Amino acid sequence: xxxxxxxxxVRRLSPAxxxxxxxxxxxxxxxxxxxxxxxxxAAGKFDAAAERAIQSHAAGQSTEx
Length: 65
Hints:
Layout: H1 2-11, H2 15-42, H3 47-58
């Protein structure tokens, strides 16, 4: 319900307002993504993947950039 109402409001924005909204939303979305990434990292969700990467690198299965 709320999403549909917001979508309708967005459709009514002028081009300048739409541009300002788009810029705001990109920033907002980036902040939300950063917060989720930090929470996932703190919870250890990337630990296994990091360990596999370290082991693969130690085994010579990667190259320096």
